[in-house]
Design goal:
This protein is 52% helix and 8% strand. The protein is mainly alpha-helical and 310 residues long. The chain has 2 domains: 9-126, Roll (CBS-domain), CATH 3.10.580; 186-310, no CATH class. The strands form 2 sheets. A 3-stranded mixed beta sheet has the order 1-2-3. Helix 4 crosses helix 5 (124-140) and helix 9 packs across helix 11.
Length: 310
């Protein structure tokens, strides 16, 4: 039977599961099992309270090995891993891959036991897809944690990924070195360099995740590579423009923006510049420094002049 990974797990549960109370004994549980007449293999017996909320689970092996007069509350396992009822088939398959149980209870948002999902419901294709999702996560960061690796192989797999970051950092350093005169005039610009690098890394991670998803969905051919590159470049340009406009709007008029964001900024003891600098870039730097001084007031270490042109 073909299973859609986006189906609700409720479509594949066994609602006819054995529910017992913690004060019942092992003998009572065996009698209930005989009277219940279940038509599927019993893997776990679920313990619920008076409001049918799941409180524990008893494996059939522990039930058969216990004395008949022993209460179920003493042999049950209270730390139960349950699948929420809003989960999809793919989410449930990931539970089986990571926990490796034969079945999982499905509970509602209030903790009420809804049913049980059995590992036999899922085909090898579904479980394999869930396992690949774990491998993709480690592949993104350059780590193959699911395989036994020697020290040299681990270094060989991870070092090229780090070289890309080193290369990008060196290119950024070369680019910044072309504007040393501007950094000398407004040192505060160096504060925003980590923000630019962090945004670039975030966009790269998003692009890598989408690329892996496309590769698993329908594959990638040379005919599709061009449109995909144009789409990603367009999205990256829009993201960069949006972030740049946001930061630029904040830095253009520091006093108005700070007063709107933080009403107490107008009452701050640090004066704002009475006039903007003649140079537009320098004017933005001054307002940005004033924002920093407003949000993190300091002692006399703050300079009275923002830059050499003020």
């Amino acid at each position: 039977m073909q299973i859609d990974l986006h189906d609700s797990v409720l479509q594949h549960i066994q609602a006819d599961v054995v529910r017992l109370l913690p004060d019942q004994t092992v003998a009572d549980a065996l009698d209930a099992l005989r009277a219940h007449g279940v038509d599927h293999d019993i893997v776990y017996i679920y313990i619920v309270d008076s409001e049918k909320r799941l409180t524990g689970v008893v494996p059939t092996r522990a039930l058969l090995a216990s004395r008949p007069e022993r209460p179920l509350g003493e042999i049950m396992q209270g730390d139960v891993v349950a699948i929420p009822d809003w989960a999809t088939v793919l989410v449930a398959a990931e539970y089986f891959v990571s926990q490796r149980f034969l079945a999982f209870p499905v509970v509602s948002s209030s903790g009420e036991l809804v049913g049980q999902v059995d590992v036999r419901v899922f085909t090898d294709e579904v479980v394999g897809h869930a396992k690949r999702s774990f491998d993709d996560i480690f592949q993104i960061i350059g780590v193959h944690a699911t395989q036994g690796r020697t020290v040299w192989l681990g270094f060989r797999d991870r070092f090229p990924w780090l070289l890309t970051n080193v290369t990008g950092g060196l290119l950024c350093a070369v680019l910044v070195s072309q504007y040393e005169h501007l950094l000398d005039a407004a040192v505060v610009l160096a504060v925003f360099l980590p923000m630019v690098l962090a945004l670039a890394e975030s966009i790269s991670m998003q692009s890598a995740t989408l690329t892996l998803h496309n590769l698993h969905s329908g594959g990638m051919t040379w005919a599709l590579l061009g449109p995909a590159m144009r789409r990603e470049l367009s999205v990256a340009a829009l993201l960069g423009s949006g972030c740049g406009l946001l930061v630029g709007a904040i830095s253009w008029d520091g006093r108005a923006t700070a007063t709107w964001l933080w009403p107490w900024a107008a009452r701050s003891r640090f004066p704002w510049p009475r006039r903007p600098c003649s140079d537009s870039c320098c004017r933005q730097c001054c307002t940005l420094v004033n924002l920093i001084r407003r949000s993190r007031p300091g002692p006399s270490c703050w300079p009275s002049r923002m830059c050499a042109h003020c």
